[in-house]
From TrEMBL:
<dbReference type="GO" id="GO:0042593">
    <property type="term" value="P:glucose homeostasis"/>
</dbReference>
<dbReference type="InterPro" id="IPR046348">
    <property type="entry name" value="SIS_dom_sf"/>
</dbReference>
<protein>
    <submittedName>
        <fullName>N-acetylmuramic acid 6-phosphate (MurNAc-6-P) etherase</fullName>
    </submittedName>
</protein>
<dbReference type="GO" id="GO:0030246">
    <property type="term" value="F:carbohydrate binding"/>
</dbReference>
<dbReference type="GO" id="GO:0070095">
    <property type="term" value="F:fructose-6-phosphate binding"/>
</dbReference>
<keyword id="KW-0119">Carbohydrate metabolism</keyword>
<keyword id="KW-0732">Signal</keyword>
<dbReference type="GO" id="GO:0004857">
    <property type="term" value="F:enzyme inhibitor activity"/>
</dbReference>
<feature type="signal peptide">
    <location>
        <begin position="1"/>
        <end position="22"/>
    </location>
</feature>
<dbReference type="GO" id="GO:0009750">
    <property type="term" value="P:response to fructose"/>
</dbReference>
<dbReference type="GO" id="GO:0019899">
    <property type="term" value="F:enzyme binding"/>
</dbReference>
<dbReference type="GO" id="GO:0005829">
    <property type="term" value="C:cytosol"/>
</dbReference>
<dbReference type="InterPro" id="IPR040190">
    <property type="entry name" value="MURQ/GCKR"/>
</dbReference>
<dbReference type="GO" id="GO:1901135">
    <property type="term" value="P:carbohydrate derivative metabolic process"/>
</dbReference>
Length: 712
């Protein structure tokens, strides 16, 4: 399909990505002397020229996470033919996570250091600050709001009173999960923020993190500017203090990432962390992602699993220490969820059986995947309902938007639904829903802290403008725009219509609610059935499957038999749900034509990294077609397009797609329109307009277009 080479690091490179003698690009005679951009009547914009020349540190095509995984090479074709086979293909890449964790469980190394640091911080009443961007930012929020806070809310006050003299009060507040752009960024990315080290430093300051606190920066690729600013800002607190101790700093500062050091070292910002002895590195590289560059999948899975179990391990040792001092009894330990002695090694080894259980669910999951894809194809919408699994469900849903260029979650001001996906939870109104979601009030950025530094310290005019614009969308007022409550108001405003789909997510104790006539699960089921909508259910629990009445009508019922044993945070169940939903949503998009092979051809280019990925994909797919023998026979030979040419076309398309999206056009996507614009112009030997290019995508997407071009 594509001509593939391996570079010295063993990574896949696709011929045509760069013009090189190794790919034979220079040997192809060009029938027309006309430059591509002249032919298309395009002059590179100032932003495009700046990106190609000045933003080389964000052109990340050499990273392992940006390569194509050989096991999912034909994913779009496979999932289109047979959904279950496509799901099997996706889950096969999660085996890379199992392999990495099997090795890590034998030698936890820096993960043990991390767990010890968390234990010490708890005993010394210090803060634990987990920071991330995008998918890892949602990971950080999950650490606080799905694991840490719910755990402490489940401990009775009498037991807390035993702990507080030794650990301090307000235990719920000791772990802070933060993401670039704060809580508003949970909904969708805020343009310009991710590319700024400055914002990471400022958020560290706003959250009151000081020398001596534990700072854990989690980054999928190891190159995220905002995250690097966070960890370097924390390190500066140590360096600027009297008597700087490198070894002591490294026991408090952690950088968790998912690419080999050797491929990150050419990037200055990554090198500044990797070569800093005062920061402990936790490298969890698993390999390429199931979808090229989609680090919401395997990279974030392993990072969530490792970090959550490291915190559990640390908390367990704290409690065991208090028991040894006779502060806690054996009964107390049981109530706290730490009756058993479980080592860090044992915790890390539990991923493989979790994955095995998820893979058993493929036949029933395929029914749900196909049902949801068919729902969207027919012009209908989905609503997910979750409580314990809310953040995991919400995260998978919101990440569909940038990954596959879908409309982001609708605001309450939308006159009609545009987003294919929405999520509800048990709450009476929007404020209560945020409290349920976060376990605390909504926390936006305080504009006064950021506006002056953004205005004076960001030298790049494009980034400065983007950051200041996004700052207006990051404050506390943003919470009023979104409502996730299963409330009468929401049911009336955006409730289900005939042939819509409702999917319920239940974990552990929620299994009993599925047959409780007074529960919101039963109310949700009744609502959707009465309105002629369809249903699906995903249950993760250790017990037997309940007799859910939706099954009588043939609704898909996916049950993962995973017990919550020696796992008081419920990490394994949440990870199982994450893996399942990631594959499910990806397979849906494959069936909708939003993936080509295993490439993210509908990526939304909202930051410098994603602009680079979009450019990469345009160049890759255009040059693949130009190298095709059938194409050359029909249309002649020409030189592969260059990176600069692909980028110039992309920047021409970006405002066009933005306008179409504002008009409600679901088909518009920057990469796809750019590829069609180039190929269709070359095929027809005239400059095809952007509207004509978009029209080519309306009947099956880019995958169908490329297949048809090979036959014409």
């Amino acid at each position: 399909m594509y001509s593939v080479l391996r570079n010295p690091f063993g990574m896949l490179l696709v011929c045509g990505l760069f013009v090189s003698s190794a790919c034979g690009g220079k040997n192809n005679p060009t029938p027309a002397s006309q430059n591509l951009l002249e032919f298309l009547a395009i002059s590179p914009t100032a932003e495009s020229a700046d990106y190609v020349k000045e933003k080389t540190q964000f052109q990340l095509h050499t990273l392992t996470t940006e390569q194509r995984h050989p096991r999912t090479w034909t994913l779009s074709e496979k999932v289109g033919e047979e959904t279950s086979a496509g799901l099997d293909m996706l889950f096969s890449v999660d085996e890379d996570v199992a392999t990495r964790l099997a090795a890590l469980s034998k030698d936890p190394g820096p993960v043990r250091t991390l767990s010890a640091a968390i234990e010490k911080a708890l005993l010394e009443r210090r803060k634990i600050y987990v920071y991330g961007t995008g998918a890892t930012g949602r990971l950080a929020k999950q650490m606080e709001s799905a694991f840490w806070r719910p755990y402490w809310r489940g401990i009775d006050n009498a037991l807390k009173s035993k702990l507080e003299p030794h650990l301090g009060g307000a235990l719920e507040e000791s772990l802070i999960g933060e993401m670039t752009g704060a809580d508003r960024a949970l909904i969708s990315s805020l343009e310009g923020f991710e590319d700024l080290q400055l914002i990471g430093r400022l958020q560290l300051q706003e959250r009151g993190i000081r020398k001596g606190d534990v700072v854990i920066e989690v980054t999928e690729g190891g190159e995220t500017s905002a995250g690097i600013g966070t960890i370097l800002g924390a390190h500066d607190q140590w360096k600027e203090a009297e008597g700087y101790d490198v070894a002591e700093a490294s026991k408090h500062l952690f950088f968790v990432y998912n690419n080999p050091d050797e491929v990150l070292l050419p990037f200055e910002r990554s090198r500044s962390v990797i070569q800093e002895a005062g920061i402990t590195k936790v490298n969890l590289t698993t390999g390429p992602q199931a979808i090229t560059g989609s680090t919401r999948m395997q990279a974030t899975t392993i990072e969530t699993f490792v970090l959550a179990h490291a915190v559990e391990d640390a908390l367990g040792r704290v409690f065991k220490g208090l028991a040894a001092r006779q502060v806690l009894t054996a009964g107390d330990l049981a109530q706290l969820g730490f009756a058993e002695d479980v080592t860090l090694e044992q915790r890390l080894s539990r991923f493989a059986p979790v994955l095995t259980e998820v893979k058993k669910a493929v036949p029933e999951l395929a029914k749900l995947t196909q049902l949801e894809a068919d729902t969207y194809t027919a012009g209908h919408f989905s609503t997910y309902f979750a409580n314990i699994g809310l953040i995991t469900t919400f995260t998978d849903g919101t990440e569909r938007s940038p990954t596959f260029r879908l409309f982001p979650l609708d605001t309450v001001n939308e006159p009609a639904r545009k987003a294919l996906f929405q999520v509800w939870t048990s709450a009476k109104d929007r404020q209560a829903a945020w409290q349920t979601f976060l376990g605390r009030p909504f926390r936006g950025l305080q504009p006064d802290l950021y506006r002056e530094p953004f205005s004076t310290q960001i030298q790049d005019e494009f980034l400065r403008k983007a950051a200041l614009t996004s700052l207006d969308k990051a404050g506390n007022d943003q919470q009023n725009l979104y409502d996730f409550s299963f409330s009468g108001e929401n049911v009336q405003r955006v409730g289900p219509k005939a042939n819509d789909l409702g999917v319920m997510i239940a974990l552990e104790t929620e299994a009993a609610l599925l047959t409780d006539a007074a529960s919101d699960y039963e109310r949700f089921t009744t609502l959707f059935q009465e309105r002629g909508a369809k249903l699906g259910l995903v249950l993760v629990s250790g017990g037997p499957a309940p007799d859910w009445r939706g099954s009588a009508s043939g609704a898909p019922f996916v049950h993962l038999r995973i017990a919550k044993m020696a796992d008081p945070f419920g990490v394994d169940q949440q990870i199982a749900l994450k893996i399942l939903l990631n594959a499910h949503s990806t397979a849906i998009m494959g069936r909708l034509g939003k993936i080509v092979g295993n490439t993210m051809t509908n990526v939304s280019p909202t930051n410098l990294k994603l602009i680079g990925r979009a450019t990469y994909l345009i160049q890759l797919h255009v040059n693949d077609m130009l190298m095709n023998d059938g194409w050359k026979k029909l249309h002649g030979e020409r030189e592969p397009i260059t990176y600069a040419e692909a980028n110039a076309v992309l920047f021409e398309v970006i405002p066009f797609v933005a306008e179409k999206k504002a008009q409600g056009d679901e088909a518009a996507a920057e990469v796809a329109v750019s590829i069609v614009r180039i190929l269709e112009s070359l095929r027809q030997k005239r400059s095809v307009s952007l509207d004509e290019s978009l029209a080519q995508l309306r009947s099956g997407g880019l995958s169908a277009y490329l297949a048809s071009v090979r036959e014409r």
